[in-house]
Amino acid sequence: MQTQLVTSLDALYHRVVVNPEIVHKHRKSIVLFIPLANTLWWDKQGKGRLQDFKPGFFYSMPQEELQKYFS
Fold first, then answer.
1. What is the DSSP string of 33-62?
2. Structural domain includes residue 18
3. How far is CA 21 from CA 17, 27, 29, in A?
4. How far is residue 44 from each of residues 4, 30, 36, 63, 67, measured CA to CA in Å?
5. 45 CB contacts (<8 Å, ≥6 apart)?
6. What is the pLDDT of residues 14-30, one digit of tens each?
């Protein structure tokens, strides 16, 4: 979300799907979040937890609207 905020580019719609050929091979996924320096942070106190929003709710959100979620 910070990248979308800084670049004004829409996030890509995506999802992770398990491949049937490897589902039983104990595939692991790791996510790494790196905060961008000198960038506004999600306003958790004012807007709530990100986990409570529908996945991708901000993907096509206009830049002016997206900025309202950061402080």
1. --PPTT---B-HHHH--GGGSPTTTTTT--
2. no
3. 12, 11, 16
4. 18, 24, 17, 19, 13
5. none
6. 777 777 877 777 767 78
Q: What is the pTM of this model?
A: 0.63
Q: Strand pairing partners for 70?
A: 42
Give the phi and the psi of residue 4 in degrees, each rounded to 5.
-65, -40
Structural domain containing residue 71: 1-9+44-71
pLDDT digits (tens, 9 = 90+) for 38-51: 889 999 999 999 88
In a domain, 51, yes or no: yes
Place 57 in a pLDDT band, splitting at 50, 70 and 90. confident
